[in-house]
Amino acid sequence: MFTGIIEEQGQVASMKHISDQAIVLRVKASTVLNDVQMGDSIAINGICLTVTSFDEHSFTVDVMPETVNATSLRSLRAGSSVNLERAMAANERFGGHIVSGHVDGIGEIIRKQREQNAIYYDIEIPASLARYVITKGSVAIDGVSLTVFQVKQNFFTISLIPYTASITILGEKEVGDVVNIECDMLIKHVEHLLTFASKKEILDEAYLRANGFM
């Protein structure tokens, strides 16, 4: 589990292709290596991956074909910068929102506009994801917890403050770049629950309490 608060930017040191769609990725880092252990989860651009080896300056992860196909990792190259976040510790502040590291799909930046100290992005997403994005709701973009400012049909708008633009890779993104999208987990759980609710069941306080939502 993650919060979407990026700890540092790492750099791709190497990408070793085991097959056409399977990769061993080595990433240079510093902060996330402070207490790293084998098997730890580290989110790379919002994708939860497992540490398979590490040294003083880098760590490696195995990337399966499903992850390569469903995310923007296939666009990375040696030297690419990436957002890094360790799994959330139970004794730390919850600064962002609940992020699983399981990317729902990719979006494309279709507008970038600087306005005073903010950077606005319009991000186009597949129709299958649009129902999970709501105004003032949360979304993770390349692992960064952000608030949705506006939703219009097949795209939504977010805004970066200077700190987020400088500490993450999002500030360097341009029109045409693709980003990983993870929608709000709570919305997806509610939809899943309602899918299995029979017509006789009523979505009232008793129902929500019985199913763990209250």
From TrEMBL:
GO BP, one annotated term: riboflavin biosynthetic process
Signal sequence range: none
Keyword Ligase tagged: no
InterPro entries linked to this entry: ATP_synth_asu-like_sf, Lumazine-bd, Lumazine-bd_dom, Riboflavin_synthase-like_b-brl
Subunit composition and interactions: Homotrimer.
Lumazine-binding repeats: 1-97, 98-194
Function: Catalyzes the dismutation of two molecules of 6,7-dimethyl-8-ribityllumazine, resulting in the formation of riboflavin and 5-amino-6-(D-ribitylamino)uracil.
Family annotation (PROSITE patterns): LUMAZINE_BIND
Any Pfam family: Lum_binding
Protein name: Riboflavin synthase
Broad EC category: transferase
